[in-house]
Amino acid sequence: MTAVATRPLTPAARRILAVASELFYTRGINTVGMELVAERASVTKKTIYDRFGSKQELVVAYLRVRDERWRDYVTDHLAGARTPRARVVATFDALHTWMEAENPRGCAMVNAYTELSDPEHPGRAVAEGQKRWLRSLLTEIVADAGVADPAALAESLAMLHEGAVVARSVLGDTRAALTACAAARTLMTAHGIAADASEAAGQR
Amino acid sequence: MTAVATRPLTPAARRILAVASELFYTRGINTVGMELVAERASVTKKTIYDRFGSKQELVVAYLRVRDERWRDYVTDHLAGARTPRARVVATFDALHTWMEAENPRGCAMVNAYTELSDPEHPGRAVAEGQKRWLRSLLTEIVADAGVADPAALAESLAMLHEGAVVARSVLGDTRAALTACAAARTLMTAHGIAADASEAAGQR
DNA sequence: AGGTAACCACACCGGTAGGTATACTCGCGA
DNA sequence: TCGCGAGTATACCTACCGGTGTGGTTACCT
Asked: DSSP code of A83?
């Protein structure tokens, strides 16, 4: 009899989740009360608790949805890229456009990890999962390129991702992902993943 | 008549600041109440407000002290390094030992930036200042090495710093700073900052 | 016709948040 | 000796937090 058992969200539940996502991301999870969420979603608190059970579960739902959106976004960007090098570059392109479109306040997963200081909070696992996912994605890609130590290179590339997000949010550097991408290219070249012909249009 | 006008903190004020720093860092700023700080510092709330004026000012004091400690820590590590390359490596060494000693929960500045979602909160400027400081430090160092675009390389190196902190806190990767350092070395080599003789002992 | 899922309105709960008020004690320097 | 800064103790303020309970309305499924 767990709430949120997954599956077809009712119209009100969809509104609640949409409103909560927006609020949790832009103002922070801990500073947003359920009363505000209810008001913004034109719903009573009762309805929120009937659909989601608790704030904790609503937070988890928010993180899960956002995590999935990001994974799909990256996967879509990967579609057109054929070489491993182009695929890595595509992840940085995805990061760049994603941040410009809807990520001015940093990575939602890292933010949540920070805000949910209780180690038992299930939201932390979602955040951790996303970080591990990116690492394994990058590891697979560079392994395909025949790199000696794929995990180490992937880890460095992931750090550039993370660092770019911080630079974008704290310093307002809108070109952060581009700078990180340039560094990623340099790193790949040094590891023997050479620039292919199609990379003539690369700025840097 | 501002409180905290700086300088010689009374004994109680020192205890308050020490306790608040510990609590704010490990549990998060928003989840720690003044009542708890008072209790842990064996002080009444009255005393806190007499010395610091408000929670906001206490938070700023916490961030300032921590920022200064980190800058001093890095500066100390820079002392023994003579070449630009060794100096950059020294910043990663500092990061490594710092994180092992007292940073398991990520960067206090980035965390505070996340938690203090109100753009007007003066704590955000402290966090931003630390990020700019690291960038300018790294820019100076690589400029000394005669790199073509020092700012761009420094930015990449700073992103590796930031990414290492995230990897350490979210993923628990205790070797994160070492991995980042290896990437930094590769980046420097690619930018013409060659390994000097003294770098025989470098692991990687 | 009956049942049930999905909602609404509203009132309420205990707990805690940041912050203030009053009144008193102690030790130090002029 | 007197004032003052630093501190104590305790009680209190308003506001909001996450969460619950009651009761009622609509609409669809059987």
From this structure: S
Domain definitions of chain A by residue range = 11-53, 60-190
| DSSP three-state, residue A104 | coil
The CATH number given to B10-53 is 1.10.10.60
Dist. CA B51–CA B132, nearest whole Å:
30
- pLDDT tens track, chain A, 204 positions: 334 445 688 999 999 999 999 999 999 999 999 999 999 999 999 999 999 999 999 999 999 999 999 999 999 999 999 999 999 999 999 999 999 998 889 999 999 999 999 999 999 999 999 999 999 999 999 999 999 999 999 999 999 999 999 999 999 999 999 999 999 999 999 999 988 766 645 444
CATH 1.10.357.10 fits B56-197, yes or no: yes
Euclidean distance between CA atoms B50 and B58, whole angstroms: 11
Q: Where are the alpha helices (DSSP H) in chain A?
A: 11-27, 34-40, 45-52, 55-78, 84-102, 108-115, 123-144, 150-171, 176-190
Cβ contacts, strand C, under 7 angstroms: A 10-13, 42-47, 50-51; B 32-36, 44-46, 49, 54-56
Show which residues on chain B lie within 8 Å of chain A, measured between beta carbons: 26-28, 30-31, 105-106, 109-111, 113-115, 117, 127-128, 131-132, 135, 152, 155-156, 158-164, 166-167, 169-171, 173, 176, 179-180, 182-183, 186-187, 189-191
Q: Which residues 6+ apart lie within 8 Å of A23 measured at CB?
A: A32, A36, A37, A40
8-state DSSP, A53:
S
Compute chain B's Rg from CA coordinates: 19
CATH superfamily name and code, A60-190: Tetracycline Repressor, domain 2 (1.10.357.10)
Domains B10-53 and B56-197 share a fold: no
Option in A113, A158, A190 nearest B186 (CB): A190
Report in angstroms the alpha-carbon separations of B156 from A181, A182, B86. 9, 9, 17
Topology, domain A11-53: Arc Repressor Mutant, subunit A (1.10.10)
